[in-house]
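SAMPLE LOG
Freezer: B-3
Tube label: C17
Construct: single chain, 371 aa
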Amino acid sequence: MEDYKEYLHIFLLLFFTISAFFSFLINWLFLKFSFNLGTRHQGTAAQVRWANTVKPAIGGISFFIVFLISISVIGTLPREGSYMLDKRLVGIIASSALGFLLGLADDAYNTNPLAKFIAQLSCAFILIISDVYIQVTGNPAFDFAVTTMWVIGLMNSINMLDNMDAITTTISMSIIAGLIMVVWILHPFLSTHYLVMLVGVMGALTGFLYFNWNPSRIYMGDTGSQFLGVFLAAMSILFFWNFKDEGTNEWLQIKQFVVPMLFFIIPLVDTTTVTIRRLMRKQSPFVGGKDHITHHLAYLGLKDRWVAITLITVSLISLPLCYAIIAEQVQWTWQVTLAAFIYFGAVFTIFQVLYNIGQRKHQAKLKAAKK
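STRUCTURE (predicted):
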C-alpha cells in the first residue's frame, strides 16, 4: 500500500507538471496568434473589469482542454469496471462541459440572462440526477433545492469574483488545494480519478496564472469562470459537504456547513457583501460593477497584486483550520463550531470595515475631481 501511495504521489506530481506546461503553452499560443479572440467591446468590458483596457478573455479554453486531457488519463487508470459507468463522474463531466459551453457563448454573444440561468439550472439538474447532490436533511426535495442554490450561486459567485487580475485564479487554486487535501486524507485510492481531475485543473490554473498575474495579459472570461463554478460546486458537494455524523437522529447538522464555509470564505464574503449592498441600493446583484471587496481594497490604496495577495492569504488560512477538522486533530464540539462561525464573522466584519473606508475614500476622491 505504501509503495502504491508513493507511486500515486509521483504520478500526480508528474501530471500536474504536464498540465501546467500544456496550459502555459496553450495560453501562450492564444495570446500570440489570437489576440482579438474573446475580447469584448471596450464599453462593455470597462463595466466589469477593474482595468479599462481590453484583453483576450480566452484563458478558460485552456482549462477545458486540460480537463479533457485529465479525463483521457483517467481512462488509463487501473480499476475494476469502466470509469464511464461511474454515474457521478459522468455527471461531473457533463455539467462541467455545459458550464464551459455556457461561458463560451456568453463571452461570444453576451447571452440573455434568462438563457444563462436556464443553463446553470441544467448544470444543477445534471449533477442531481447523477447522485451528486448535498445530503443535508434526507428530504429529497429540500436537498435538491439546496444543491441547486449552491451550484447556481457558486457559478455566479466565481464569475462575479473575476473582476481583477488573478483573483479568481488564485482563490480557485486555494479551493482546489483544499479539495486535494481532503481527498488525500480520506480516500486517495478510492478517488484517484477525482484526484487526477483536480490536479489537472490545478495545473491548468497554474499555467494560466503566469499570464493572468498583475499586470495581466489575458483573462479567463466567462468561459473559465462558468466552468470553474460548476466544477468546484460538484467537487465540493462530494468532498466538502460529506462531513456528517452517521447514526444520529439529528435532522440538520451544522457541522456539514462549516467546511465549505471555510474553504469558500472569499467568494461567500464577496457575494454576500455585493448582494446585500446592491439590494439596499435597489440595484440588481447580477450585473457587473466596481463595488466588490477587491475594488474597495484598491480604493484604500492597495496595488492590484497586493489585493490578490491579501485575498489568497485569507483563503489559505482556512487550509490548516480545515485540516485539523478533517484529520480529526481536534474533537468536534459545539465550541469548534462556534469558533468557526466567529472566524467567518470576523473576516466578514473586517472586510465590511475596509469596504466602508475604501468607499468613503473613493467618494471623496470623486468629489475632489469634480471641483
